[in-house]
Design goal:
The protein has helices at about 15-30, 75-100, and strands spanning about 1-10, 40-50, 55-60, 65-75. By secondary structure, it is an alpha+beta fold. Strand 2 (about 40-50) and strand 3 (about 55-60) form a beta hairpin.
């Protein structure tokens, strides 16, 4: 997986980098069914100094699809984690569509007879 991590205007650079690297490692485990060299991920984390608002943007390019998520907040760790959880949710949805799970009939639903 190709990783590009940008951290702008942040004092605790090492802590943020460790958190992002850990979340990317977790994401990489979930994407192991793709060829490793065909996946690229771009993460941007920045702090707006005037209002102390943190912004995280992550985009993941997999074969035939691009998934992106972004979040803003006052807590840097929560902002990063929310962005990566949204990205994981979208990737899981895309994987389910690739397996054509949306076309399968669901069983166990109640059928009401008139």
């Amino acid at each position: 997986m190709t990783r590009v991590i940008e951290i702008k205007h942040v004092e605790a650079r090492d802590q943020v980098r460790r958190l992002i690297d850990g979340l990317i490692d977790r994401l990489e485990d979930k994407l192991r069914h793709f060829r490793n060299e065909s996946i690229s991920l771009h993460a941007l984390f920045e702090e707006n100094g005037s209002r102390t608002v943190y912004r995280t943007q992550v985009s993941c390019h997999i074969p035939g699809h691009t998934v992106a998520a972004h979040e803003e907040g006052r807590n840097p760790g929560a902002c990063i984690r929310k962005t990566f959880s949204e990205l994981e949710r979208q990737l899981a949805k895309h994987s389910a569509r690739m397996r054509r799970e949306h076309l399968r009939k669901r069983t166990g639903h109640l059928q009401i007879e008139a």
